[in-house]
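Try this one yourself first.
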């Protein structure tokens, strides 16, 4: 697999109404991207995540799912990872376990091919997956999960991280790139920054720091979007001339959603967030698989990493 982004911009068609996400997300997207074109999105009434849709075993996870908002940030302190990030895989694995479903794995929505550096964000794409896919002769996105078994998807910018996530996530959860999810939707989406190395992020500014990509990623959910990223991404601004006006894109999304210098709804160590601090890891004996052993090693190595949860 290659992680080299394709070049060549693709235009973006704006919309004014959405039937996928709720009014809370519509207001956020308006402030983040659309108001500069004097467009105000409208959407359905607020749709908080039902209490029966998850089981949170830690106070950190409870802060994610009980926030009562459609966008939550899970931020951590690290600046050392590039295309593969075991810290984010541990965070996303915990989120997935809290909403794990027993239904068959859902297929990806949208085009199966790579759409380039600036993915097209069309009215049907951000609004409704079904009509967009059917117009291309593709199958419509599967129906949403129930209130007690919601569908979950994970977006990551790099195929290498997708490969890692596939080894730790339940079979019912699909990790994929934003291109593969374009046109698709889930009840809950985890959007991963993956890159925490600022210099590496700057080298991929047309890829990691594209506001269009970020817009597509955060608008895939019907009920809740969880952005998982390093605090270091908030300091990185694009360097290419056509992106300079966007400033630090991830920081702009964060401040648009939760404001300047917000207080976290929860903060603690990664071990406290995932619950690994309260579990006895033991040794890799009695047939423990290599993937499980690797996860335990990562939990041990990164358990002291500081994590904070912010909600809109």
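Now uncover the answer:
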């Amino acid at each position: 697999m290659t992680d080299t982004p394709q070049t060549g911009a693709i235009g973006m068609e704006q919309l004014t109404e959405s039937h996928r996400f709720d009014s809370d997300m519509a207001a956020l997207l308006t402030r983040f991207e659309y108001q500069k074109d004097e467009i105000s999105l409208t959407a359905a009434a607020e749709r908080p995540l039902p209490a029966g849709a998850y089981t949170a075993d830690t106070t950190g996870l409870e802060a994610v799912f009980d926030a009562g908002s459609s966008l939550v940030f899970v931020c951590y302190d690290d600046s050392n990872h590039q295309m593969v990030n075991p810290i984010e895989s541990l965070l996303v694995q915990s989120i997935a376990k809290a909403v794990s479903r027993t239904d068959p794995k859902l297929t990806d929505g949208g085009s199966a091919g790579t759409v380039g550096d600036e993915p097209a964000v069309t009215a049907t794409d951000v609004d409704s997956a079904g009509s967009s896919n059917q117009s291309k002769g593709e199958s419509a996105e599967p129906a949403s999960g129930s209130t007690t078994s919601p569908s979950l998807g994970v977006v990551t910018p790099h195929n290498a991280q997708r490969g890692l996530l596939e080894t730790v996530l339940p079979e019912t959860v699909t990790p994929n790139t934003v291109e593969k999810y374009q046109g698709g939707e889930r009840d809950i989406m985890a959007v991963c920054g993956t890159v925490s190395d600022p210099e590496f992020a700057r080298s991929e500014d047309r890829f990691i720091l594209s506001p269009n990509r970020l817009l597509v990623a955060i608008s895939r959910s019907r009920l809740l979007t969880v952005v998982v990223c390093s605090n270091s991404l908030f300091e990185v601004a694009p360097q290419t001339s056509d992106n300079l006006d966007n400033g630090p894109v991830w920081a702009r999304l964060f401040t648009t959603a939760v404001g300047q210098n917000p207080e976290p709804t929860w903060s603690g160590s990664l071990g406290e967030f995932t619950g690994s601090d309260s579990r006895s890891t033991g040794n890799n004996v009695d047939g423990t698989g290599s993937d499980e052993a690797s996860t335990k090693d990562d939990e041990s190595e990164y358990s002291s990493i500081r994590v904070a949860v912010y909600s809109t």
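Discussion: The two ends are 36 Å apart (CA to CA). Residues 19-311 form a domain with the Rossmann fold fold (CATH 3.40.50.300).
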